[in-house]
Structures are given as structure tokens and as C-alpha cells.
Amino acid sequence: MKAIRVHEYGRPEVLRLEEIARPEPGADELLIKVHAASVNPVDWKIRAGHMKDFMPMIFPYIPGFDISGVVESIGAGVTKFKSGDAVFGRLDGSGAYAEYALVKETDLALKPKSLDHVHAAAIPVAALTAWQALFEAAQLRPGQRILIHGAAGGVGIFAVQFAKSKGAHVIATASEKNQGFLRELGVDEPIDYSKTRFEDVVRDVDVVLDTMGGETQERSLKVLKKGGILVSLVQPPSAEHAAKYGVRAVMLRGHKSAADLMEIAQLIDSGRVKVFVETIVPLAEARRAHELSESGHVRGKIVLKVV
Questions:
Q1: Do 106 and 132 belong together in one domain?
Q2: Tally of domains within the chain
Q3: Virtual CA dihedral for 134, 138, 139, 143, nearest 10 degrees?
Q4: Which of 67, 64, 88 is CA-nearest to residue 5?
Q5: Which residues of 185-205 are buried (b: 16+ CB within 10 A; e: fewer)?
Q6: What is the span of the domain harbouring residue 109?
Q7: How much is the pTM?
Q8: Is residue 307 a contact partner of residue 117, using CB atoms and an 8 Å limit?
Q9: What is the pLDDT of residues 118-161, one digit of tens each?
Q10: In sequence order, which residues have a C-beta less than 8 Å from that of residue 164 and are 6 or more positions away?
């Protein structure tokens, strides 16, 4: 099979298209014929070596966590899926940038019926992160007010829609060019961060979803009501600073969950949540996909089309 592999940390040039042996599924594993794999910021951060202190890779490795495809064959003990099923999921480790991938049965769900594989591949990491931040970490409830930073990004887009589906009041930041897009998503109060300091216009929110870190995180603590919570996806927040404002602050790392994926798929098939893919590139052009992702100016997701 063809696969993108990395033999050393470095710039996008270390991504190589190679011919390697197709794997065989072991117990509780499925071999998936990958139709599409999405590109997440974590992919290039790992490739560049930014995460090697706590997520060291064994070279060579195949990047990528998100896939959508069709079950090719199954290993012993697999009972939930059969050959020919259209599925999507988040891999245990990496391995998505390839024509075939091995996946644990517990990491897969049936693909949303309303989506093609390209759009289904854009879901797992970003949507699971948003879902778990809002409903596991923050325990977001109907009627609460939430501030979402970077709302036009991969995680932010899902977070806005999940919060609205829950009946929350959504305030969100994005660049000037994305203000109209935020309104399309259903944001109640869009904020252009290039013109307005959010803390000048936001008060007493129940939840802040921090996708930025740094001084944005520190300023966000001030807009929470007493007892509110900041959930950061990028930087461990200071418990000391949070206590100073009488709020809570936690760091979240999203995790695999077939149950969450099934709930998300139902929301998508019901029409209440949409998936936004900005750029589709062939597997062989993974380098270009990483360069686009690293630019930091992507609305929605970048997806590698394999089939």
C-alpha cells in the first residue's frame, strides 16, 4: 500500500510517500480501506518535534489520527462491524495517512449516513475535543453563556454548533473576515478580535473555551462569573490565577470515544450540526496540507483524499 511516512523530525519535506506492506488485523482490530484522512494541527506539531518530550514517536511512523473508510477485513473477536461497513474514527496513535489503517473496534463508529468520506474524516479529533470540553469538562447546560475563542477553526466550529444544540448563549471570537461565518454558525455575539478586546464587551460567562493560550487565556479568566470554568485545549492554566478570580480552570486533552462519535453522528444526520471542509488535497500532497495547516489561517478542516 501507499503511505506517507516520517523518518525524522523536521519541516514538511520530511513527509515521504512510500510503498510499504499492507498490515493484517490482529485480535479486536479491523483493517480499514481509508477513503479520507483529515489533517489536524497536532499532526504537524508532532512532525516538527514540538511534542517529542511527552509524545515521542518511533521512526518511521505514519502521521494522522482521523479516518473515514470501509472495513476491508476483521480480526478475531470483532463483533460490532463487518466487511463493507462504512466507518469513521480516531486512531489509537497515528497511521491515518495511508491507503489502509489498523483500528481497534472500540475506536470506530458507523459513518454518518448524510456525509461522504471526506467530510466524515474531518470529524473525529476536532469534534471529540469540542464535545468533551463542553460536556465532560465544563458540564455546559441549557441557558448558560459560553465564550469560544478561535471559533472559525476546526474545534471552534464544532464547539459553536454543539453549544447551540444544547441551548447555550454563544459568544465567539474570530478575525474580521470570519464574522459573517460566525453568524451563519449561529453565534449570538460575534467579536472581531482585531478591533475589539473581548474583555471590554463580555461579562459573567459560565464557560470559556480557550484555544489560544498565552495572554488570551489570562484575560479570559476576568470575564467568567464566580464559579465559572475555563477549559484550555492548548496550555495548562494557572490554578493560582483562577483562584484569584474565584473561578476554575482546567486543561483538556481529547480522548477516543466511540459513544461520543455516535452521538455526534446523530446530530449531524439530524441536520443540527454541519461539517466544514475548506481544502481537499490528494494523499501524495500531504506536505502542502501541512504547510496550509501551519499557516494558521484555515477555516474548517483540511482533508487528504485517499480514494
A1: no
A2: 2
A3: -80
A4: 64
A5: bebbebbebeeeebeeebeeb
A6: 2-123+275-305
A7: 0.96
A8: yes
A9: 999 999 999 999 999 999 999 999 999 999 999 999 999 999 99
A10: 170, 185, 186
